[in-house]
Amino acid sequence: MSKTVLLVEDEPNIIEAISFLLERDGWTVRIHSQGGDAVEAVARVAPDVVVLDVMLPGRSGFDILRDLRSEATTKELPILMLTARGQTKDRELAESYGVSHFMTKPFSNEEMLGKVRELYAASVDKS
Amino acid sequence: MPKSALTGSRIREHRLMRGLKQADLARQIGISASYLNLIEHNRRRIGGKTLLALSEVLGIDPSTLSQGAERAVVTQLQDAAASDVDTLVELDQIDDLVARFPGWAAKITAQHRRLRALEQTVGGLNDRLTHDPVLSEKMHEVLSTVSAIRSTASILVATPDLGTEWQARFYSNIDTESRRLADSSASMAAHLDVLSRKDTGRATPLEAVFAAFDARGHHLVELEEGGDPHALATQLPEIDSAEARALALQYFRTYSADALAMPLDAFEAAAHELNFDPAALAGRFSVPLEAALRRLASLPRGATIPDIGLVSCDAAGALLVRKSPSGLALPWFGAGCPLWPLYAALNAPGVPIRRLIEGEDGARFTAMALAHPSGPLRFDRPPVYHAIMLLVAQDDQQDDPAIPVGSSCRICARSDCDARREPTVLTQA
């Protein structure tokens, strides 16, 4: 059974590109485009990896990340943050909340795919 | 003859040129030799009758002797020196520079002000790049669009077995995103263009308002004649941005209200009658004391009107009004001297404070300060106070103890000052 990525992103064409890439790589991709109930979506989908945008309608990715890290079930969940806000303070904020990796847009497909695989492998090793 | 920019030094030079002894000149104008000695060494301010008498005996125009504009230039040159402590300059020869090469001195001060303004503009733009929500949103949109295009284009290039349906879809996506990129780039460029057009050499809207008041001697003829503050805010060349216009409008409305409550002719007559006493004038016109202080500083300069300065600040000490009197240059940038009664007034809102102060050159002023609420008082919010200080130049011989003050710490050479917040650069260079 393939592993699942939950892609929390609101840009349709980025969703389509990332979904295509991940599915071609053998992942099951679930999409969620709202920030407000993203934490519930994670609980519902129970993904192996989350790809999380920062600027989302309803709620910021930072807040979602913080909430996920406060839950025992998602405390160690691999979370890759994608953002156009690449400032040092944003990266530091994400790291302080416990992000697994922080990647700024625009990113290369290989870089993004490689990081999803790497985060998943690390989580498997840890468990 | 190398002339000094300071009045006392000039008097001394002209006296020596005429071969007059200090005691003889003092006797001719009716002051003591020791007092003339203090004047010649710039330890006492000179003005009024004594200046006229001296110029008459020395056979020169009083304006040749008087300081004022030159003092301000000296202070600005000191500020320029203070801004670059790595470059040693001949601070003790600033007076000579001003007197012998006034054009170069003016050029240096103008460039220094321009440099400081540009530094502040850069700081402001940096703040905008970091905090401007509009720019942040536009940047986010551009990067997101570029990201979509890059990922999609990479898929098209790196996936030779891509079916025609996917190909068509991704080409369409690139087309959509490239149009969006064009729009968002143009929008961001337009926003940056608005920012860049704000760079007029004045760092802030407040600087523009200061420039407008300075250019008119803080006397706005248009508003004295009942002109519309809004119209004036759109007419003055110094008021060159929407933000500056909005700020200027506040100042001009206050000016208009003061002019209406204290009409110029009546106020000027009353000022003479009441010996320029702000409290008495406030009583005469039934206005708050701070309004009378403002109005005194807006009187047009004339032979019968004393040299009056005005400075005001908010509760954080930031200067809101800056009218320098001759002999006490107010700082162009940053906070003023902590010993100004202006700041003491903030400690006792509503209590008028009158002090005799003395600038570094010996010029003396009666400083009248008051902290007053800057807006309506509310039960559910703490009051917001502004402080205002009127500076009235004092005539010659006054031996009452005065509070020694400066312009600002960096360019103040006074030693043993309890209020000093940072070292002066004047003694370091």
Write the layout of secondary structure elements.
The complex is a heterodimer of chains A (127) and B (429).
Chain A: E1 4-8, H1 12-24, E2 28-32, H2 38-45, E3 49-53, H3 61-70, E4 79-83, H4 88-97, E5 101-104, H5 109-126
Parallel strand pairs in A: 1-2, 1-3, 3-4, 4-5
Chain B: H1 7-17, H2 22-29, H3 33-40, H4 48-58, H5 62-65, H6 69-82, H7 94-100, H8 102-131, H9 133-158, H10 164-197, H11 205-215, H12 221-224, H13 229-235, H14 242-261, H15 264-273, H16 278-285, H17 289-297, E1 308-314, E2 319-323, H18 341-346, E3 353-358, E4 364-373, E5 385-393, E6 403-404
Parallel strand pairs in B: 3-6
Antiparallel strand pairs in B: 1-2, 1-5, 3-4, 4-5
Helix pairs in contact in B: 2-3, 6-7, 6-8, 7-8, 9-10, 11-14, 13-14, 16-17
Instruction: Please describe the biggest sheet of chain A, giving its number of strands, its sense, and whether it closes into a barrel.
Output: 5 strands, parallel
Helicity range of chain B:
40-55%
The largest chain-to-chain contact, stated as pair and per-chain residue counts, equals: A-B, 21 and 24 residues
Q: Considering the protein shown, what is the CATH homologous superfamily of the domain at 7-110 in chain B?
A: lambda repressor-like DNA-binding domains
